[in-house]
Amino acid sequence: MDLYTKHNDSLSILCRLCRGKIVPKVGYKNPKQATEFKNQIEMLFNYNLSNDQPSVDPPKLCGSCARQIRSVENHCIPQPIAKFPEHSDSVSCDVCRKKIEHS
Ligand SMILES: [Zn+2]
Ligand SMILES: [Zn+2]
Question: CA 85, CA 94: separation in Å to the nearest integer?
């Protein structure tokens, strides 16, 4: 697996909003696609998901962010959205390291 594939693989298990690792739990629904919350994210973060780059930004939300975003969508205070680093070939890529540390 080359580094960029690995990076994308890591992104696919990180939450777009809290940057936490999405841990599949028995009995829980699959992680939500961030695009399902496009409108809420635009309201809450003043951020348009179509600016996301698939090679940089995770495509999914963890369960708790999905719940949270539903509960706050009616009284929103815009806040900064999480930023993700682009992959670098050095060992210091946070995204790739996150995967390694947790697996
Ligand atoms: Zn989250
Ligand atoms: Zn990486």
Answer: 7
Tell me the ligand closest to 82's alpha carbon: 1
Question: Do the Cβ atoms of 61 and 15 come closer than 8 Å?
Answer: yes
Distance between Cα 56 and ligand 1 center (Å): 16
State pTM to two decimals: 0.74
| C-alpha of residue 18 to centroid of ligand 2, in Å | 17
Q: Which residues contact 92 (CB under 8 A, 6 or more apart)?
A: none
Tokens of residue 83, six digits:
């930023």
pLDDT tens series, the chain, 103 aa:
687 888 999 999 999 999 999 987 777 667 899 999 999 999 889 999 999 999 999 999 998 899 888 887 666 667 788 888 889 876 678 888 776 444 3
Distance CA 95, CA 54 (A): 13
Those residues whose beta carbon sits under 5 angstroms from the ion ligand 2 are: 7, 87, 93, 95-96
